[in-house]
Amino acid sequence: MALLALHSVGKSYGALKVIDAISLSVAPGETLGILGPNGAGKTTLFNLISGDVAADAGRIEYDGRDLGRLRPHQRCRAGVGRSYQVPQPFGHMTVFENLVTAACFGARQSEREAWHTAHEVLQQTGLAPHANKAAGGLTLLDRKRLELARALATRPRLLLLDEIAGGLTEHEARVLVQELARIKAQGMTILWIEHVVHALLAVADRLFVINFGRELAQGKPPDVMNDPQVQRVYMGMEA
Ligand SMILES: Nc1ncnc2c1ncn2[C@@H]1O[C@H](COP(=O)(O)OP(=O)(O)OP(=O)(O)O)[C@@H](O)[C@H]1O
């Protein structure tokens, strides 16, 4: 059974259909990469899954359960963790405190459990040397890592990553990809929006391409990348 399934999900803002009858599913342990031009509706899709925005059509099932009635914090506690395109740490708090907060509120852990989780996630994401630094003073790579770490500290089964490699150097993106590959190898189910295509291709099992809120293509990465419609719309190449 799929861990996440969207059935004809839709969202409009006034006359603008931002998400139009999207159906997709993600199997446990699978990484689905989401591609699409700017403004295609990718972040809105995440907002619908995390509950930041309410769908006005269709059904979203997580682990066989209708997410529709759950508020964002309830979805998080059910195991849906996410990162944001623009990192959103508590800047005045340390990295460690940010992780403890995520574990306490996102996973309902006791303070003791949350400390344990924070230590584990610091190791997992390479942030241990920065544990006592204020989150607001981190480099872009470390802010991206913290965004990933905060999502992991909520103890998700499904991880939604929104442009986690955006703005990084080639080397930094490679480091992040290695971290994500390790997380995936531990069995995490991942939905990853990314414009840095080579980073996405290094981890994704399947790709899903959105254009104007609709599905343009989905399937195995080589098939999708060679699809003439995808090449024309997404990469600006003539078929
Ligand atoms: N709250 C809102 N009110 C009105 N329009 C919105 C709102 N949120 C998003 N939109 C519009 O919906 C469309 C899709 O936006 P979205 O952020 O989901 O795209 P995206 O694919 O994530 O883009 P990018 O790759 O640039 O991050 C855009 O036209 C955007 O302007």
TrEMBL record:
The keyword Manganese does not apply. Residues 4-237 form the ABC transporter domain. It comes from Caenimonas terrae. GO terms for molecular function: ATP binding. Keywords: ATP-binding, Cell membrane, Membrane, Nucleotide-binding, Transport. The keyword Aminoacyl-tRNA synthetase does not apply. It comes from the Bacteria. This is ABC transporter ATP-binding protein. InterPro entries: AAA+_ATPase, ABC_AA/LPS_Transport, ABC_transporter-like_ATP-bd, P-loop_NTPase.
